Amino acid sequence: MSEKITADYLESFLGNRRLMDQLTFILEAEKLKTILRRTLLLDRSRVETDAEHTWQLALMALVLSEYSDEPVDLQKVLKMLLIHDIVEIDAGDTFAYDSVARVSQVERELKAADRIFALLPLDQAKEFRALWDEFELKQTSEARFANAMDRMQPLLHNFFTNGGTWDSNGVTATDVHRRMEPIGKASAALGALSDKLIALAVEQGILAPAKVAEAVGQKAP
Amino acid sequence: MSEKITADYLESFLGNRRLMDQLTFILEAEKLKTILRRTLLLDRSRVETDAEHTWQLALMALVLSEYSDEPVDLQKVLKMLLIHDIVEIDAGDTFAYDSVARVSQVERELKAADRIFALLPLDQAKEFRALWDEFELKQTSEARFANAMDRMQPLLHNFFTNGGTWDSNGVTATDVHRRMEPIGKASAALGALSDKLIALAVEQGILAPAKVAEAVGQKAP
């Protein structure tokens, strides 16, 4: 019956337009449970869903906020994280290391944000959209810390599942270092942990070192 | 490699005991993705996991906090919700309408709380445990509102999946009314919505009305 859930439909038998707009958004956002990511669960039984990933990031922020190098408003970080992937209901999960898909990602996600946040009453639609834009821009301490959580979680999972999705996708340490840059920008301590995990992953043979061409490129002046 | 993740093990190659304690908790809590609930996804494709359920409650609190009859500290509500089901990693999900399992539930969950929150550094272990105790006791406005979200979400899902798990478990409107009581204690508006959904569910034949014995009992003075 999911396809029938619109605010008009709900209002027809439950009244209260504002609450029905909010309910429509909540029931639409629920589809985040059906969007699969590339990241394996730690028990390697399957990949995680976007909803599960989002919960884990919020929990990580709760536990790790003391490592932010700048003061952060934790409530704002949590709000940002709780909604940051909702656009993937329309845009799908884009694999971090898929450079082709990432070209169209921005456009697909902007369109999704336009549609999905607009389900909310106007004041909340504006607030949630502003939070999402702020997360994407990474220009505030809260956005930087939230993004650090979003990068660190798959790194932890790839490391603790013996390489996880790195190997099958030809990802190298250079790729991972580049992808993990936002961690160090939010937190020196978590940046150092990230560097250590990447180095250990190479040492343990679960992550390929830089490609030869890349390694040469880095050494050139 | 999940079974190996202890703070001692992590400290042996990553150092920084406090951060490793926090990481151990985060990676242990991740098992919430493997705990299945009875509630169906809205598309009825499968039941949800505890991690997905938790994310949805936090999102609901974010959207619906204006309906709390008392002022609430939203950050505290979010913190409570993000950790409220972590005990189910050890204790399992107890079906809301299984009166036999619910007898041992409290004991099982207390034991789980003792073990899991203690993985954190002492200050955070105390904070998280206090948040969980507060949620369970339902004596503060934040705990009441968080509990209202926890009750309302399965009600919404059962309603919008044509009865969901009610029918197959012999649940009646009387059972659901009793189970949903905390909603009205936190919010008159959400309590009214809950009552309306139960009445509509009975009207639509997707929820059995009260059992005969119960109906008689209710009418007696």
How is this structure best described in words?
- The structure is a homodimer of 221-residue chains.
- By secondary structure, chain A is mostly helical.
- A two-stranded antiparallel sheet of chain A has the order 1-2.
- In chain A, a hairpin with a 6-residue loop joins strand 1 and strand 2.
- In chain A, helix 3 packs antiparallel against helix 4, helix 4 packs across helix 7 and helix 8 runs parallel beside helix 10.
- The longest helix of chain A has 20 residues.
- The C terminus of chain A is likely disordered.
- Chains A and B meet through helix 2, helix 3, helix 4 and helix 10 of A and helix 2, helix 3, helix 4 and helix 10 of B.
In short:
2 copies of one chain form a homodimer. Chain A has 221 residues and is mainly alpha-helical. Chain A is 64% helix and 4% strand.
| Radius of gyration over C-alpha positions of chain A, nearest whole angstrom | 19 Å
Oligomer: homodimer
Strand content of chain A: under 5%
Number of helical segments with 4 or more residues of chain A: 11
- The low-confidence parts of chain A are 215-221
Largest interface: chains, residues each:
A-B, 53 and 53 residues
Query: From N to C, what is the helix and strand string of chain A?
Result: HHEEHHHHHHHHH
Sum up the overall morphology of chain A in one term: globular
Q: What structural category arises from helix and sheet content of chain A?
A: mainly alpha
Strand neighbour order, sheet with most strands of chain A? 1-2
Instruction: Determine the fraction of residues in helical runs of chain A and give it as a percent range.
Output: 55-70%
